[in-house]
Amino acid sequence: MEVRFFNGGHCRQLLAMADRRTWRIGAFHAVFLAVAHPRHGWVLIDTGYGTSFAAATRTWPRCLYRWVTPVEARTPTAEILRTHGIAPEAIRHIILTHFHADHIGGTREFPAATFHHAKEALAPLQALSPLAQTRHAFLPAQLPEDFAARAAPIPLTRFRAERTTGFPAHDLFGDGSLMLLDLPGHAPGHLGVLIASNRGPLLYAADAFWHHRQIDEDIAPLLPARIAIHDHRAYTATVARLRVLQRTTGLRILACHCPATQTRVGR
Length: 267
Ligand SMILES: [Zn+2]
Description:
Elements: E1 3-14, H1 16-19, E2 25-37, E3 41-45, H2 53-56, H3 63-68, E4 71-72, H4 77-83, E5 93-95, H5 101-104, E6 114-118, H6 123-126, H7 130-135, H8 147-150, E7 151-154, E8 160-161, E9 168-171, E10 178-182, E11 191-197, E12 200-204, H9 213-216, H10 223-227, H11 232-249, E13 252-254
Parallel strand pairs: 3-5, 5-6, 6-7, 12-13
Antiparallel strand pairs: 1-2, 1-4, 2-3, 8-9, 9-10, 10-11, 11-12
Bound molecules: zinc ion.
């Protein structure tokens, strides 16, 4: 299957947060993917910031988010796809790796899509106070009003160990094309996707790590970046497993905000 990468807006952060050596402010792009499934058409993995961020952070306490994290996202996700020859109205399936604002921001733009996500990803965030939701980078107003009706949550208890990676997995369409992987730690119910791409298997790890140095060289992100992690122990264990997987199998592993992923964007 053809896999395409797009930038769905970006925020500005100290780059050293992720790689511990680039001491300047730079862009953390909100990458999302489109995968050409032979039966289901273009399937999206995440949706970038979309243009919902500004409205969703207008009022207290959600405005704290944009004060702490300056976000630039002016182009609707659907428009980005259209520019690259993909008809957004034809999108029927969207995988949400987790519910952070830079992954769910474009969900309102796809009224015909079903949203696939881990069941455990949303309820814990919905149960939080508005202030705590903001601290966890969750802005409920970014989701469409009929989200619950169009969501297809999959319980993590249904995931079974996958052959190539060893991670618990769920075969989304039952054909091995898109295996949802339980990559815990970064956010509740955080998923990666093992994609049967036309260039060989590709593990899209979403936010399981930020920078390839974390799995290439065993470095940990700086403390302020670590505070944003939902379950630090699980996060570290997931990164360690991905490191071993890459070393032993040579599997291509890409992450959303990693500079290495930028070489694939917009092609
Ligand atoms: Zn995230």
